[in-house]
Amino acid sequence: MAKPMEPNIIELASILSKIEGTAGVNVSVVEVDRKVENVRVTIKGPNLNIDKLFKAIKKTGSAIHSIDEVATGEEIVDHAKILDNPRI
Amino acid sequence: MNTFDGVMTVMGLILGGAFTIADPLVLFKTGLGASLAIMISGFFGAYMTEKAERTAEIKILEKHLFRSLKGTQVEKTARGKTLMLAAIDGLSPFLGSFLPLLPFLFAHFGVLDFASAFVVAMALAFGLLVFLGIYLGKIMEENPWKMGLLFMVGGVLVGVLGSMIGKLL
Question: Which CATH number do you get for residue A40?
Answer without folding.
Answer: 3.30.70.1340
